[in-house]
Design goal:
Layout (H helix, E strand, L loop, with lengths): L2 H11 L8 E6 L6 H16 L3 E6 L9 H12 L3 E4 L7 H9 L6 E6 L8 H11 L4 E9 L3 H17 L13 E4 H7 L8 H11 L4 E8 L11 H20 L1
Parallel strand pairs: 1-2, 1-4, 2-3, 5-7
Antiparallel strand pairs: 4-6, 5-6
Length: 253
C-alpha cells in the first residue's frame, strides 16, 4: 500500500486492534446466491454513511446437509478483511446462529439482521442513525407494512398481543422485527441464552429487565418468494412455552 492508501484504509475500516463503529451480523442460512447481492448493497450503504464497519456473515449448517451458503460466505470473507464468516455445524436454530455471530462482533454498535431480503438493508443505517442521534440503548424496526401473507400477519399479531400481556411495560412493538441495533456494552449485559426462534423475544425481555431506553423506526417487510417460512405450527407452541417459562422465571428470580 502507498502511504495514502494506508491512511484511506485506516479511516474507512479501522485497524484490527481498534473497534469499528458498527458490526453488522447477517444471518445467511439458506440464502444461497442471494448473499452476494445483499452483502454488496449493505457494503455500499455502510461505506456511504458509517465511518468504519465490519460485517459478520453467519452461514452455519446442519451436519450432513451443508449447502452452498456456507461456501459462499467463506468465499466473500476471504476477499474482504472487514468481512468475517462464521461457519459451524448448527447446534440450534436462529438463536444459536445469531449468538454465534454476535459473539464475534467488535463494533461499538452491534446490528443484527436476517439476510433473506425480507428486511430492507437500508434500515441498518436508519436504526444506526437513531441510536446515535437520540442516545438509545437499543433501536429496532417495526413492520408498518407487511407483504408476507395474512396467515403470518395474524400469527404475529396474536403473538405480540400475548407478549405485551405477559410482559407489560415494554415500550416497543413487533417484537421479532429486525434489524435490531445495540450499544456493545448493552448487548454484553443481556447475556443472551436462546438457541431457538425465541431470541428476539429474549432480547426484549432482557431490555425490559435492564430498563433500557428503546427506540423504533417503521419498516416495510417483503415477501420471501424463494422459500417457505421457517416458522411452522410447532414453532408457535415453542414461542408460547418459552414466553410462559420466561414470565414465571421473573417471579422465581
Amino acid at each position: 500500500m502507498t502511504a495514502y492508501s494506508e491512511y484511506e484504509h485506516f479511516t474507512k475500516y479501522g485497524s484490527m486492534n481498534i473497534a469499528p463503529e458498527i458490526s453488522v451480523v447477517i444471518l445467511c442460512y439458506g440464502a444461497g446466491d442471494r448473499v452476494y447481492s445483499f452483502v454488496d448493497r449493505v457494503s455500499e450503504i455502510l461505506d456511504r454513511f458509517v465511518p468504519s464497519w465490519e460485517m459478520v456473515l453467519v452461514g452455519n449448517y446442519f451436519d450432513g446437509a451443508r449447502d452452498k451458503t456456507s461456501d459462499i460466505v467463506e468465499g466473500i470473507a476471504a476477499k474482504r478483511e472487514n468481512i468475517h464468516a462464521v461457519v459451524l455445524p448448527k447446534k440450534g436454530m436462529m438463536g444459536w446462529d445469531a449468538r454465534s455471530g454476535l459473539e464475534k462482533a467488535r463494533g461499538k454498535y452491534v446490528c443484527l439482521i436476517d439476510g433473506d431480503e425480507q428486511m430492507p438493508y437500508r434500515d441498518i443505517v436508519r436504526v444506526y442513525r437513531k441510536i446515535k442521534k437520540d442516545e438509545f440503548d437499543l433501536v429496532k424496526t417495526y413492520r408498518a407494512v407487511r407483504q408476507d401473507g395474512i396467515k403470518r400477519i395474524v400469527i404475529s399479531q396474536v403473538y405480540n398481543f400475548l407478549f405485551m400481556v405477559l410482559f407489560p411495560g415494554i415500550s416497543s412493538r413487533d417484537i421479532n422485527s429486525k434489524p435490531k441495533i445495540f450499544r456493545k456494552e448493552v448487548f454484553e449485559r443481556m447475556d443472551l441464552k436462546s438457541d431457538d426462534w425465541f431470541l428476539d423475544a429474549e432480547i426484549m425481555i432482557k431490555a425490559r429487565k435492564l430498563k433500557l431506553k428503546i427506540g423504533m423506526v417503521p419498516s416495510k417487510f417483503y415477501k420471501c418468494d424463494y422459500r417457505g417460512s421457517f416458522v411452522k405450527l410447532g414453532t408457535i407452541f415453542e414461542f408460547l412455552g418459552n414466553m410462559l417459562r420466561a414470565r414465571l422465571s421473573e417471579f422465581v428470580n
